[in-house]
Design a protein that fits this description.
Elements (H helix, E strand, L loop, with lengths): L2 E3 L21 E5 L4 H9 L3 E2 L7 E4 L4 E4 L8 H12 L3 E5 L3 H10 L12 H12 L3 E8 L2 E11 L2 E9 L4 H15 L5 E4 L3 H5 L3 E3 L1 H11 L16 H5 L6
Parallel strand pairs: 1-2, 9-10
Antiparallel strand pairs: 2-4, 3-4, 5-10, 5-11, 6-7, 7-8, 8-9
Helix pairs in contact: 3-4
Length: 249
Amino acid sequence: MIAWLDPHDPFPPVDAALGPDSEAPGLLAASRDLTPQRLLLAYRHGIFPWYAQGQPVLWWSTDPRMVLDPTALRVSLSLRKTLKRVLREDDWQIRVDDDFESVMRACAETPRAGQHGTWITPEIVEAYGALHARGMAHSVETWYRGERVGGLYGVALGRMFYGESMFARRTDASKIALAALCGFLAGHGVTMIDCQQETEHLASLGARPIPRSEFVAHLRTATAQPQIVPWRFDKTVLEWWTRARQAER
C-alpha cells in the first residue's frame, strides 16, 4: 500500500517504496499536487514523478538507481568523429536554455518504443518551467543551420544533475547535447547524473545501476554544495570528448 500525500505531507522514507516483486517496483506515494516546492523536496530525497495523463501524480524511488558519471560517457569512434565535425563547422551550435519549454514539448512529442502517449503532461511542463524560472532546471540544445534538432532537459541542485528526457530529430543530436552537458558538469566537479531507471540504451551510454542507499547518500553531499552559476556554455565544451580515450580506438 502506498501513501497518499496531501499538500503539506512529507514524503515517506524511500525504503518504503514497493519492492522488486511488486507490480510497480519503486512506487512510493501518490498526490494531487505537483508544485515546485514538492519537486525540489522529492529530488533532494531521491524521488521523482512519473505518471500518465489522467492519473494522480505518482512518486517513485527505484532500487537500484541508474546513474552516469559525466566522465564515463561512452563516446564511440563514430560519435567522436561527429563531435569533431560539430566543432569544426559553423552550422552547428550548442545552446543552453534557449527555449526550455520548447525542449520539454519536443521530448513529449518524440515517439518511444513500447510507450503510448507521454508522461510529460501540461502539468509537468508548467511545474518544471517554474523550476527553470528559478534557475534550477535547464535545457541543453543541439542546433543545426538555425534549427533545434536535438536536446535534453533536467534539474540541477548543487553539484547534482537529474536527467529527465532527451529528443533527436537528426542522427546523434541528443548525444551531442549529452556530451556537451557531461563536459560542462565534469568541469564543475559533478560526478553523478541521475538517469532514474535502468535501460539498455542508458547502459550503452555508460550509465550503471547503483543501490538506492548509495544514491541517496551521494545526494546528501552533492545537493548541499553551491549551485553552478552561470549555466552558460557553447560547443567548445565538446573538445574534451574529441581527445579522450585515445586508447579505445
